């Protein structure tokens, strides 16, 4: 795929992009695909194709990926490992996932940069905020890896932090379900799905879609969050265009 500019609809008009710069957060578990461990190249290609479609529509894309498919610091700490050590190992897992997604994106013709919060110059650029913004302005999908570079912070918090730093207009949280529910829909078929929520709702009801630190950071900076199903093709572009996808979390009153 070549970067041929924004896509036109059937009338020849170019659809308006509601969110011109997005931060997409993907869990490491999403990259498992049908595998029990590691990275599924086919699912990486599926994600890359979605991102490429949004990129072609004129959206600037930053991306944060977790590392849970390879290593979970919290789980290791629960089994007796030092928490900080486990978190650093988890950060390194996000680097591997970021490189896998970079490869998939470049194979579908999307220019990329990987920026890391932990110095590893032979693998990725160091994260520098102004340089990251410049990459986005030049049309490069920019992948932010190694979390915040500090233990005790989740990749959700890293995503919220990077979103605010780069001036993203929305944080897209990709999940396995089509929004936020009042219970786990995989185990509770009668669970209620929300279309709109406020930050206070998410924090007060402990809905658990993102950790409290990430939600609070978005609330303080009035950054909307959209939680949506990554498994549906074209949802990344649709969310960026402002179409009704998943659950929108913001400071306004729920619709």
Notes on the structure:
It is a single chain. The chain is of the alpha/beta class and 255 residues long. It has one domain (21-250): Acetylglutamate kinase-like (Carbamate kinase), CATH 3.40.1160.10. The chain is built from 8 helices and 11 strands. It has helices spanning 41-56, 73-78, 83-107, 129-137, 155-165, 199-204, 212-220, 235-240, and strands spanning 21-26, 60-65, 112-116, 125-126, 141-145, 170-175, 180-181, 193-194, 196-198, 225-229, 247-250. The strands form 2 sheets. The protein has a 9-stranded mixed beta sheet, sandwiched between helices. It is globular. The model is unreliable at 1-5 and 9-14 (pLDDT under 50).
Tally of alpha and pi helices: 8
Give helix and strand order, one letter per element, not per position. EHEHHEEHEHEEEEHHEHE
- Quaternary organisation of the protein chains: single chain
Rounded mean pLDDT score: 91
Strand proportion: 15-25%
Main pleated sheet: 9 strands, mixed
Spatial shape: globular
Order of adjacent strands in the largest pleated sheet: 4-3-5-2-1-6-10-11-9
What's the layout of helices and strands?
Layout: E1 21-26, H1 41-56, E2 60-65, H2 73-78, H3 83-107, E3 112-116, E4 125-126, H4 129-137, E5 141-145, H5 155-165, E6 170-175, E7 180-181, E8 193-194, E9 196-198, H6 199-204, H7 212-220, E10 225-229, H8 235-240, E11 247-250
Parallel strand pairs: 1-2, 1-6, 2-5, 3-4, 3-5, 6-10, 9-11
Antiparallel strand pairs: 7-8, 10-11
